[in-house]
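Tutorial, part two.
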Amino acid sequence: MTEISRFADEAMWPAPPIPDDFPRVSLIHMTRMPLQVMAAAAELYRGEVVSDPGQISRETAQHWFDEMSKTRLQAPLEFIDLHFLLDGVTRGFTHQLVRQRTAVYVQESLRFAVKDGENFEVTIPPSLSGLREDDPRSVVYTDTVTEIGLAYQRLINAGIPAEDARFIIPTGILTRVHYKTNLRNLAEHAGNRLCTQAQFEWRVVWAKMIRAIRERPFALRFAEAEMDAWQYETIADMFRPICFYTGKCEFMGEHDRYCSIRERMNTGQYDKVASHEWLANPSAARRPSE
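Running the prediction step on this input gives:
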């Protein structure tokens, strides 16, 4: 690893290694008693003033949550905040993620984080990950990534600032980002990103985000957490592709890709579409060296 004293810019620092089980999703913070907090706000719609969300019954909270799926007046969902750390996602993924303008981000900056040596970690996409190592296509990809990594390291060692050396880094480089949003915007974002039109990485990350929400109460250290587990389960079950909300496929242009559930969704056969059909991981991501 290059010593910091040799870096061209004193603000540069060695990027921490990416975890082996990438992408890793950590739910750092989420509003406690989420559906009760949401319902406390919604109660004002009918003239009820609630200052303690703990006073909201399960029935009332569930009622208001169900109401949110029937109206465009979904402001109460914005009272539920979620803060994720996505560790081991590609720069290509984060380029798309930050297009959601209803969120806050802090991303590992390759202006200063040096992806040096063993930390130059690039993933293999699904169309290549299932090929043999000696397949000519795999060889081209792996050899190119290796050469770029070596070239990047030579530039860093020669005194080139990371913010300039990064110009040759592929979009498949693994990185990390803090992502904070609210439930209303997260659900809207899920509609497009869980669609089979989205890049494979989205479905991989979303599956882990959903699991993190579902497991949230058991990761907390207060006695009431498990009693509130139903609230997190209910939220985890709400995420669906956009066609489940609109009742039809929203990607019918001639440039849109084939979708295996399109015909069933357009004819109202929602009960014949299993979640694994749109939440499937096309291929386990791995690094070129593995």
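The chain has one domain: 4-31+80-277. In part three we will examine how such features are distributed along the chain.
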